[in-house]
Amino acid sequence: MANTESEASAAPVCEVVDTLSTGVLVKRRLQRMRACNERDDKGKVCAGHLKRWYFFGEEVAGKFGKDAEIYRCENCKTLYLPATDETPRTGTLSY
To answer: pTM for this one?
Structure first.
């Protein structure tokens, strides 16, 4: 039988970049990450969908720029910056 605690701890962890004045965490996404990996007090993973967030406040715009590529978890509202190795998803689509 597999030990679930060792498997859960082996999962990659996102780097915490900053914490906003409201207590919201700002993390760096992993490569091709689509779901939030923030854990609650009991250790359960949030797994909320990460959606592109365009209408962020002045604090986020001041720290990361007004045209920053920001993603937000639909459940726990944790903010994510894009992965460093991933190409930006901003700009015009080209076919």
So the answer is: 0.79
